[in-house]
Input
Amino acid sequence: MRLIFLGPPGVGKGTQAKQICEHYKIIHLSTGDILRNEIADNSLIGNEVKKYIDNGNLVPDKVILRIIENRLKNNDVHEGYLLDGFPRTINQAEGFQKIIMDQNHYLNGVISLTANEEELIKRLIKRGKDSGRSDESPEIIRHRQKVYWKRTAPLLKYYNEKKMLKKVDGLGNITDITLRILETID
Ligand code: ADP
Output
């Protein structure tokens, strides 16, 4: 099972990704988590990406694609994976397509989680108070939303045209949303 989760910051991709990965026994790959770990480790990549993340901008496609390509060579993704936070640009989606074609793999589907912008900003500001993340001040949160609509939202159309997109309402309690996602996948 290979899935992509798409949706604006705050929509609950991370929370739902955990549930879905447990259900299918697949690996959760969050590029945000991978990047934050690199920063915490003070690695070369970490130093390169920190300024983008702190300002709420996207890390360059080249860097992300290299990370994903390497990560997908690991044996633990054999049973499948859920990508959370990747791809985030059309260029990344095209790069990803090449990577999986080279591996003779295919994607099962793209889940788009939706919610209105007011609700998202409210959730993020609440989360920002105790997440300890460097990019969760109200100003950076608003900027990340803008970046999403400009650079990532075009992927909704992109995957819809490929007949891969499935929309799921991201409002409600966590279990209900998980059930909605599972129904959509089945
Ligand atoms: P959220 O879903 O709340 O936006 P993430 O943890 O997915 O948070 O991402 C945090 C930050 O990490 C982004 O604002 C961006 O700077 C960087 N990032 C994560 N994934 C990508 C990606 N695929 N391409 C470029 N930048 C990324």
Summary: The beta strands are 2-6, 27-30, 81-84, 109-114, 165-169. The two ends are 11 Å apart (CA to CA). The chain has a mean pLDDT of 94.
